[in-house]
Amino acid sequence: QTAFWLVAVVCVANVSISSAGGVEGSDGVPAHVDGTPLPQPARLVAIGDIHGDMQALKGALQLAGVLHSKRDQWTGGRTVVVQVGDQLDRGDDELAILALIRKLQKQAQQAGGAFHVLFGNHEHLASTTQGFRYATEGTYRHFAEWEDVCRDKSRLSAKEYDLHHCALYHGPLACPAQDFQCHKTVQRVPKEMRPRFHALYPGGCIAKELLAKERAAVLIVGDTLFVHAGLAFEHLSHHSRAEDAIRELNLEMSLYFSGQIPQVSERTSEVVWTRNYGQVVNERNCYELQRTLAALPGNVSRIVVGHTIQPSHITSACNGAAWRIDIGMSRGTYGTRPQVLEILPGGRVKVIKSGTAGRMGLGRLKQVATAVIAQLQLVKNWFTRPAPTYEL
Questions:
Q1: Alpha carbon of 362 to those of 310, 359, 369, 376: distances in Å?
Q2: Considering the entire predicted model, what is its pTM?
Q3: Active site annotation includes 122
């Protein structure tokens, strides 16, 4: 099955590679999927999973010193930021987060910096017919309002257009004509859940115009490898050059979200779903990691992942070769105070923490209680809604 999908990716890429989106490189490949390492910046910052919580995203960006404290303005200059995926699910602010990230990406580029964003397993999950489980009532409501307001952009003022994130809307929202699975799913879910499903489904306006064009599965910046969940030697070994393997992984995800292939291969899905580096790491994991890093172009010395929540603070393993930066910042998970990872030239790595991160004071207890309540509400919603049999 894996071999079949890899052949399919190559075939589609040969005829429509530029339609995956993004700025094209010299060989016609979209720049965001190119496996070539990006240069080491003077300052590199990594941010963990956000999960629909604008407060968590802004808190992390401000802690990193790249977002103005009172307005949505990039203040990072030439700093390069990498967010390691999972912008979606568990929180109400998905649309606002996607719009803010896009805005800051443009501002960062103008300032000589960059804001790179990766695919996470929840972006993948939200694109499938199983993508309802972790979405909140608030996010469904926001997507429904978004479609209602942005359907006729011509009647909106510039302020209304920005307020409702209409730059993300390209309608009408509907299933691809011949996609039986999509039509079958839409018929089974409540009306208010459909706009989000349509927008994030492969070929939908956000999936095609934003995720496919502005996200990557694997990214190398300087001496650091970034991926949502993990990368193994087996992901690279089927190509003579690791750059080509990374390019293939990225391109396959882009083609999937743009609706040009029906699913991603098991090999590609592993980079956003594996738990090999997030949980207990043993000597074999570390050996495999060193083997993987050695196969990469340049002098890559560490991997940075999200995906698996670390208790209270960013952690490292394998003598600093693996950094796990998902600390559950979203109030839809643990509501942990923001922390970010700073990587400087010469291999200097530093965890930047909020003032009382990890302390179980009254504020922290309130955050944990809020997160627990949110999770219980999700469970309640899941069991009380008319539940269709979702299929891939």
A1: 21, 9, 10, 21
A2: 0.86
A3: yes
